[in-house]
Amino acid sequence: MMRLPIAKLRSLASSTRHCITLSDDSTLVLFRLPALASNQHKQHIARHDDVEYYLMQEECPHAGGPMSDATIELDDVEDTYMASCPWHHYDFNLDTGESKMGIKACTYPLQIENGKLYMVVNTDALQVKSVEPVSEEFIAPKTKPMERVADDIDGADNLPVRVTGIEYLSDDASLTSWCVHILNTSQPEHKIQLTHYLWLLYTTREATYPMQIGSDRPPDEPPRDALLKVVHPGSFKGSGRAGNVKHRVAMLHSLANIEQWAIDLALDIMARFSHFKTSRGTCLPRQFFHDWLKVANDEAKHFSLLRGRLEHDDLGNSSFGALPVHHGLWQSAQETSHDLRARISIVALVHEARGLDINPMTIGKFERSGDKGSVDVLRIIHRDEVTHVTTGHRWLTWICEDEETDPVNVFRSNVKKYFRGSVKGPFNQADRQTAGLDADWYANLEGTPKTVLIAGG
């Protein structure tokens, strides 16, 4: 057996996960996690101080989902870490690669020597081409850094950290109370901080003291910062080819506006439909709320990344709010506020799926302009949005299975009722297929007369 050097430990300290590309173009994901006492003598795991390293194939063996975006959970029975694929929630033991679903992911032994991490291999033909951190970053605003303070409640060491100047609820508040509170928060920086806090709080407590779901009623329309200039969505024109700073700023600003509404859409679906029952009387499981809260947290991350790009020196130190915004995406929420099936169909499987078609073209424009910083951000967003469409597909399919209806027919029927215009291409067939949407879902699909289609959300 031979050892393949991966990286110095200090270079891995900035992120909990890294994507590793080998010379044969295979990709792996490296996880950096708090050490577990039970893992001291396991051979695949490398341990240094209070940190453990795990190496796994990057593609889920079930359907190719990105394990770099996996949710990591602690299995209290086995006292080991489990990685759950973001697409279909197949979970894998990070040490053995085994899954309760009967399939197995490849895991690889690691060693540490002299401050460097090595992968144990059986060939000398491999080399490491790249080691790239997976972005989990929320970019703080450039104009007003936020001061973080420790919580003053019992058990604060195990809970997320609060930020001064933001109104928080009690950590005993229900999920829908939190959702409504964040929906009614007009300041975008406070909204993204509260959303991220709620995600951490909910997932931290899930195994020991699960948060109550609640039944709070969301607002008809979330308020927006009074400083924003709001215009009709039909008045927006194309932002050009991203060939100059002005056009790139306009495109990023428009995307940031969409992401802010996308946060609210994910929060609203949890609050508005918290007591939804299928036609057979089946209630939504807790996994539904976990999945949409993950979407909300992703959208908050996306907003912070886009806002960070707008404020960057190479884009003229702009800011969110420097240009007009529109409320077009929320119109679809209002038109589907009575039916979860319609909401998922229009928002997740039309608007967000359209983002899968548009994003690669947008990324290409920024690549041709040499704007690498924005390209990196847009790639993160696109990868996450594939999982969001998957979430919509998963839950519409779940409802239809319980009601013994055909999800494709239900989707197409809802589009004909609540979407104005045709669902037009060009379609990103590969990513739509990855998310569960083959051509039967969207081909030759006509709604009612014209609406404004907002890609994303």
UniProtKB/TrEMBL annotation:
Domain Rieske as annotated: residue spans: 17-119
Alphabetized GO MF terms: 2 iron, 2 sulfur cluster binding; metal ion binding
CDD domains hit by this protein: Ferritin_like
UniProt keywords, alphabetically: 2Fe-2S, Iron, Iron-sulfur, Metal-binding
PROSITE patterns on file: RIESKE (PS51296)
Xref: InterPro entries: DUF455, Ferritin-like_SF, Rieske_2Fe-2S, Rieske_2Fe-2S_sf, Sol_Rieske_ferrdox_dom
Annotated protein name in UniProt: Rieske domain-containing protein
